[in-house]
Predict the structure of Acyl-coenzyme A thioesterase THEM4.
Amino acid sequence: MGEMVFRQVDLSTEEVDALEARYVPLTEAVRELVAATILSNADDDVVAEALAAVREVTAKLSASVETDHSGVNYNGAGRSWNWGNAGSGERNAIAPPIDLKTNPDGSTYADLVLGAAYEGPPGHVHGGVSALLLDHLMGVTASQMSRPTFTGTLTLRYRNPLPLGPIRVEGRVAREEGRKVFVEASITGSDGIALEADGVFITPTWSPSLEATQN
Ligand SMILES: CCCCCCCC(=O)SCCNC(=O)CCNC(=O)[C@H](O)C(C)(C)COP(=O)(O)OP(=O)(O)OC[C@H]1O[C@@H](n2cnc3c(N)ncnc32)[C@H](O)[C@@H]1OP(=O)(O)O
Protein backbone atom coordinates (compact mmCIF):
# COMPACT_ATOMS: atom_id res chain seq x y z
CA MET A 1 0.00 0.00 0.00
CA GLY A 2 1.27 3.52 -0.79
CA GLU A 3 1.93 5.90 2.04
CA MET A 4 -1.22 7.54 3.41
CA VAL A 5 -0.41 10.50 5.63
CA PHE A 6 -2.88 12.59 7.63
CA ARG A 7 -0.75 15.70 8.20
CA GLN A 8 -0.80 17.93 11.28
CA VAL A 9 -0.19 21.54 10.29
CA ASP A 10 0.71 24.39 12.64
CA LEU A 11 -2.03 26.83 11.62
CA SER A 12 -4.69 28.30 13.89
CA THR A 13 -8.33 27.62 13.05
CA GLU A 14 -8.69 31.34 12.19
CA GLU A 15 -5.80 31.06 9.72
CA VAL A 16 -7.31 27.95 8.11
CA ASP A 17 -10.72 29.64 7.86
CA ALA A 18 -9.11 32.74 6.30
CA LEU A 19 -7.25 30.63 3.71
CA GLU A 20 -10.43 28.77 2.86
CA ALA A 21 -12.42 32.00 2.56
CA ARG A 22 -9.79 33.34 0.13
CA TYR A 23 -10.24 30.43 -2.28
CA VAL A 24 -13.93 29.46 -2.00
CA PRO A 25 -15.19 32.35 -4.20
CA LEU A 26 -12.55 31.37 -6.80
CA THR A 27 -13.77 27.76 -6.68
CA GLU A 28 -17.36 28.88 -7.21
CA ALA A 29 -16.28 31.11 -10.11
CA VAL A 30 -14.41 28.16 -11.72
CA ARG A 31 -17.59 26.06 -11.43
CA GLU A 32 -19.43 28.83 -13.31
CA LEU A 33 -16.61 28.82 -15.87
CA VAL A 34 -17.03 25.05 -16.34
CA ALA A 35 -20.78 25.45 -16.97
CA ALA A 36 -20.19 28.39 -19.33
CA THR A 37 -17.59 26.34 -21.25
CA ILE A 38 -20.16 23.60 -21.77
CA LEU A 39 -23.09 25.83 -22.69
CA SER A 40 -21.55 28.81 -24.48
CA ASN A 41 -22.35 29.59 -28.12
CA ALA A 42 -19.68 32.31 -28.32
CA ASP A 43 -17.78 32.87 -31.58
CA ASP A 44 -14.10 32.16 -32.33
CA ASP A 45 -12.82 35.52 -31.09
CA VAL A 46 -14.54 35.27 -27.71
CA VAL A 47 -13.40 31.68 -27.17
CA ALA A 48 -9.80 32.58 -28.13
CA GLU A 49 -9.92 35.50 -25.68
CA ALA A 50 -11.27 33.25 -22.93
CA LEU A 51 -8.57 30.64 -23.62
CA ALA A 52 -5.78 33.22 -23.32
CA ALA A 53 -7.27 34.72 -20.15
CA VAL A 54 -7.72 31.32 -18.47
CA ARG A 55 -4.16 30.29 -19.37
CA GLU A 56 -2.84 33.56 -17.93
CA VAL A 57 -4.57 33.23 -14.54
CA THR A 58 -3.72 29.52 -14.36
CA ALA A 59 -0.03 30.37 -14.84
CA LYS A 60 -0.26 32.99 -12.04
CA LEU A 61 -1.92 30.57 -9.62
CA SER A 62 0.47 27.74 -10.52
CA ALA A 63 3.53 29.89 -9.79
CA SER A 64 3.18 29.16 -6.05
CA VAL A 65 2.13 25.51 -6.13
CA GLU A 66 4.19 23.30 -3.79
CA THR A 67 2.60 19.82 -3.87
CA ASP A 68 0.66 17.68 -6.35
CA HIS A 69 -2.20 16.91 -3.94
CA SER A 70 -3.71 18.82 -1.04
CA GLY A 71 -3.98 15.83 1.34
CA VAL A 72 -5.95 15.56 4.55
CA ASN A 73 -4.71 18.07 7.10
CA TYR A 74 -5.64 18.98 10.64
CA ASN A 75 -4.50 21.42 13.31
CA GLY A 76 -4.05 21.13 17.08
CA ALA A 77 -7.64 22.29 17.68
CA GLY A 78 -9.05 19.40 15.62
CA ARG A 79 -10.02 21.53 12.59
CA SER A 80 -9.44 19.33 9.54
CA TRP A 81 -9.41 20.26 5.88
CA ASN A 82 -9.17 18.33 2.63
CA TRP A 83 -9.43 21.03 0.01
CA GLY A 84 -8.87 18.75 -2.96
CA ASN A 85 -11.31 15.96 -2.00
CA ALA A 86 -13.03 14.82 -5.21
CA GLY A 87 -16.36 14.43 -3.42
CA SER A 88 -16.42 17.59 -1.34
CA GLY A 89 -13.21 19.66 -1.46
CA GLU A 90 -13.97 23.30 -0.66
CA ARG A 91 -11.34 24.36 -3.21
CA ASN A 92 -12.18 21.69 -5.80
CA ALA A 93 -14.39 23.02 -8.60
CA ILE A 94 -14.69 19.45 -9.95
CA ALA A 95 -16.37 18.30 -6.71
CA PRO A 96 -20.15 18.63 -6.51
CA PRO A 97 -21.06 21.71 -4.40
CA ILE A 98 -22.02 19.69 -1.31
CA ASP A 99 -22.50 21.21 2.16
CA LEU A 100 -23.10 18.20 4.38
CA LYS A 101 -25.08 18.55 7.62
CA THR A 102 -25.19 16.14 10.56
CA ASN A 103 -28.36 15.72 12.65
CA PRO A 104 -28.16 15.25 16.44
CA ASP A 105 -28.81 11.50 15.94
CA GLY A 106 -25.79 11.16 13.63
CA SER A 107 -27.75 10.89 10.40
CA THR A 108 -26.64 13.19 7.60
CA TYR A 109 -28.08 15.09 4.66
CA ALA A 110 -27.13 17.59 2.00
CA ASP A 111 -29.23 19.76 -0.28
CA LEU A 112 -27.51 20.79 -3.47
CA VAL A 113 -28.16 21.80 -7.05
CA LEU A 114 -26.48 19.88 -9.88
CA GLY A 115 -26.17 21.67 -13.22
CA ALA A 116 -24.80 21.02 -16.70
CA ALA A 117 -21.39 19.79 -15.52
CA TYR A 118 -22.93 16.73 -13.87
CA GLU A 119 -25.04 15.46 -16.79
CA GLY A 120 -25.17 11.86 -17.97
CA PRO A 121 -28.45 10.92 -19.67
CA PRO A 122 -29.98 14.04 -21.32
CA GLY A 123 -31.12 16.44 -18.58
CA HIS A 124 -30.25 13.94 -15.87
CA VAL A 125 -27.43 13.33 -13.41
CA HIS A 126 -24.57 10.99 -14.41
CA GLY A 127 -24.74 7.72 -12.46
CA GLY A 128 -21.10 8.02 -11.43
CA VAL A 129 -21.75 11.44 -9.92
CA SER A 130 -24.59 9.96 -7.85
CA ALA A 131 -22.21 7.22 -6.70
CA LEU A 132 -19.59 9.84 -5.77
CA LEU A 133 -22.11 11.81 -3.72
CA LEU A 134 -23.32 8.68 -1.92
CA ASP A 135 -19.81 7.33 -1.28
CA HIS A 136 -18.77 10.60 0.27
CA LEU A 137 -21.87 11.19 2.38
CA MET A 138 -21.99 7.57 3.54
CA GLY A 139 -18.27 7.63 4.41
CA VAL A 140 -18.69 10.73 6.54
CA THR A 141 -21.79 9.20 8.15
CA ALA A 142 -19.84 6.05 9.04
CA SER A 143 -16.82 7.94 10.36
CA GLN A 144 -18.87 10.34 12.51
CA MET A 145 -15.81 12.55 11.95
CA SER A 146 -14.09 10.70 14.77
CA ARG A 147 -12.57 7.56 13.18
CA PRO A 148 -11.19 6.65 9.76
CA THR A 149 -13.60 4.51 7.75
CA PHE A 150 -12.96 3.33 4.20
CA THR A 151 -15.51 2.19 1.67
CA GLY A 152 -15.44 -1.61 1.59
CA THR A 153 -18.55 -2.33 -0.46
CA LEU A 154 -21.03 0.13 -1.91
CA THR A 155 -24.29 -1.15 -3.45
CA LEU A 156 -26.47 1.22 -5.45
CA ARG A 157 -29.98 0.76 -6.81
CA TYR A 158 -30.76 3.28 -9.53
CA ARG A 159 -34.55 3.21 -9.20
CA ASN A 160 -35.44 6.22 -11.33
CA PRO A 161 -33.53 8.74 -13.46
CA LEU A 162 -32.40 11.75 -11.39
CA PRO A 163 -33.16 15.08 -13.09
CA LEU A 164 -30.52 17.82 -13.02
CA GLY A 165 -31.51 20.52 -10.52
CA PRO A 166 -32.14 20.38 -6.78
CA ILE A 167 -31.40 17.09 -5.03
CA ARG A 168 -31.27 15.81 -1.46
CA VAL A 169 -28.81 13.13 -0.30
CA GLU A 170 -29.50 11.44 3.06
CA GLY A 171 -27.68 8.78 5.08
CA ARG A 172 -27.72 6.98 8.40
CA VAL A 173 -25.86 4.23 10.21
CA ALA A 174 -28.01 1.09 10.16
CA ARG A 175 -25.80 -1.01 12.44
CA GLU A 176 -22.22 -1.77 13.45
CA GLU A 177 -20.36 -5.06 13.79
CA GLY A 178 -16.84 -4.70 15.16
CA ARG A 179 -14.87 -2.59 12.67
CA LYS A 180 -17.69 -2.67 10.10
CA VAL A 181 -20.23 0.14 9.85
CA PHE A 182 -23.34 -0.52 7.72
CA VAL A 183 -24.76 2.65 6.21
CA GLU A 184 -27.98 3.25 4.27
CA ALA A 185 -28.57 6.28 2.04
CA SER A 186 -30.75 7.71 -0.70
CA ILE A 187 -30.93 10.48 -3.27
CA THR A 188 -34.20 12.28 -3.94
CA GLY A 189 -34.71 14.64 -6.87
CA SER A 190 -37.54 16.76 -8.24
CA ASP A 191 -39.35 13.59 -9.41
CA GLY A 192 -39.00 11.80 -6.06
CA ILE A 193 -36.64 9.07 -4.91
CA ALA A 194 -34.05 8.13 -7.54
CA LEU A 195 -31.38 6.06 -5.76
CA GLU A 196 -31.07 3.86 -2.71
CA ALA A 197 -27.73 2.64 -1.42
CA ASP A 198 -26.25 0.52 1.28
CA GLY A 199 -22.61 0.15 2.09
CA VAL A 200 -20.06 -1.41 4.40
CA PHE A 201 -17.47 1.03 5.71
CA ILE A 202 -14.50 -0.38 7.57
CA THR A 203 -12.04 1.00 10.08
CA PRO A 204 -8.76 -0.60 8.95
CA THR A 205 -6.49 -2.46 11.35
CA TRP A 206 -3.64 -0.19 10.36
CA SER A 207 -3.75 3.38 11.66
CA PRO A 208 -3.15 6.22 9.22
CA SER A 209 0.31 7.61 9.93
CA LEU A 210 0.45 11.07 11.45
CA GLU A 211 3.11 13.59 10.49
CA ALA A 212 3.69 16.91 12.24
CA THR A 213 4.85 19.72 9.96
CA GLN A 214 5.61 23.32 10.77
CA ASN A 215 4.31 25.98 8.39
C1 LIG B 1 -14.12 11.65 6.75
C2 LIG B 1 -13.93 11.46 5.24
C3 LIG B 1 -14.89 10.46 4.63
C4 LIG B 1 -14.54 10.23 3.18
C5 LIG B 1 -15.36 9.10 2.61
C6 LIG B 1 -14.76 8.61 1.35
C7 LIG B 1 -14.86 7.11 1.31
C8 LIG B 1 -13.87 6.54 0.33
O1 LIG B 1 -13.97 6.74 -0.85
S1 LIG B 1 -12.59 5.58 0.94
C9 LIG B 1 -11.65 5.15 -0.51
C10 LIG B 1 -12.14 3.90 -1.20
N1 LIG B 1 -11.94 2.72 -0.38
C11 LIG B 1 -10.70 2.17 -0.20
O2 LIG B 1 -9.69 2.65 -0.73
C12 LIG B 1 -10.64 0.93 0.67
C13 LIG B 1 -9.66 -0.09 0.09
N2 LIG B 1 -9.72 -1.30 0.89
C14 LIG B 1 -9.02 -1.41 2.05
O3 LIG B 1 -8.21 -0.54 2.42
C15 LIG B 1 -9.25 -2.63 2.88
O4 LIG B 1 -9.69 -3.70 2.06
C16 LIG B 1 -10.31 -2.40 4.01
C17 LIG B 1 -9.80 -1.31 4.96
C18 LIG B 1 -11.67 -1.98 3.41
C19 LIG B 1 -10.52 -3.70 4.79
O5 LIG B 1 -9.25 -4.15 5.17
P1 LIG B 1 -9.03 -4.91 6.55
O6 LIG B 1 -9.33 -4.03 7.71
O7 LIG B 1 -7.67 -5.53 6.50
O8 LIG B 1 -10.16 -6.02 6.44
P2 LIG B 1 -10.20 -7.46 7.13
O9 LIG B 1 -9.47 -7.42 8.45
O10 LIG B 1 -9.78 -8.48 6.13
O11 LIG B 1 -11.78 -7.62 7.37
C20 LIG B 1 -12.46 -6.99 8.44
C21 LIG B 1 -13.92 -7.33 8.30
O12 LIG B 1 -14.45 -6.57 7.17
C22 LIG B 1 -14.94 -7.47 6.15
N3 LIG B 1 -14.51 -6.90 4.86
C23 LIG B 1 -13.25 -6.74 4.41
N4 LIG B 1 -13.23 -6.11 3.21
C24 LIG B 1 -14.53 -5.90 2.90
C25 LIG B 1 -15.16 -5.29 1.78
N5 LIG B 1 -14.45 -4.76 0.77
N6 LIG B 1 -16.49 -5.22 1.79
C26 LIG B 1 -17.23 -5.72 2.80
N7 LIG B 1 -16.69 -6.30 3.92
C27 LIG B 1 -15.35 -6.40 3.94
C28 LIG B 1 -14.30 -8.81 6.43
O13 LIG B 1 -15.09 -9.85 5.97
C29 LIG B 1 -14.18 -8.79 7.93
O14 LIG B 1 -15.43 -9.11 8.50
P3 LIG B 1 -15.53 -10.05 9.82
O15 LIG B 1 -14.81 -9.29 10.90
O16 LIG B 1 -16.99 -10.20 10.07
O17 LIG B 1 -14.83 -11.32 9.44
